[in-house]
Amino acid sequence: MTVMKRVRDMTVATLNDRLEKSEDPVRVIDQFLWTTHQEITQSEGLQRQYAAHTDSLYRQWKDAEQWADKREQQAVTALKAGEENIAKLALQDKVIHDERAGRYRQLYEQSKTELDDLEQLLQELRNEYRLVYDRRQFYVARMESLRLQQRLNARFTPGGADTSQMFRKIDDRLTDIELETRSLRDLRRMGQETLLHAGEVVKNTIERELEELKRKLQQGG
Question: Among 36, 210, 25, which residue's Cα sits nearest to residue 121?
């Protein structure tokens, strides 16, 4: 595992922890996506450089092999012509190109392995970006649901407007008014009855007084 890979794993491992501690998960995810996007961009640039370098090493390797094969053919031709010294010179040059081909092949294989690792890491970064982006969209939708639920709860809380309670209060008020009106009416009626009763008492008193005067007159006469 390369250093780049180890660092990347550490970065991913801290994402969930940061999400759990944050009150704004979308902001944390946006920061992570921005960092990941930067890493993808840098990795793509490095991948292009590695690909070009690996391709150059491959050409150097194959070029050295071709020169080695060519020198070997020249050595064979020289031997057939009885030119042993020329054959030795050709073989000497062949050995040089064989060594050169071996060195470039080793560099190529190393570079190719690193290029494969980089391409794998790049693919993981892209997959991870898409995965985290999908999670972001989910969090956005979830937060919108919570916001709408809060508005719904604020609109229909127990302490909010209650139509049945409102009409019950109106009914109670009307009942109070009716009782008050009835009480006033009863008081007026009682007043009238009292006046009538008082009138009867006065009338009776006058009648008694009249009878008393009549008796006095009779006795005096």
Answer: 36
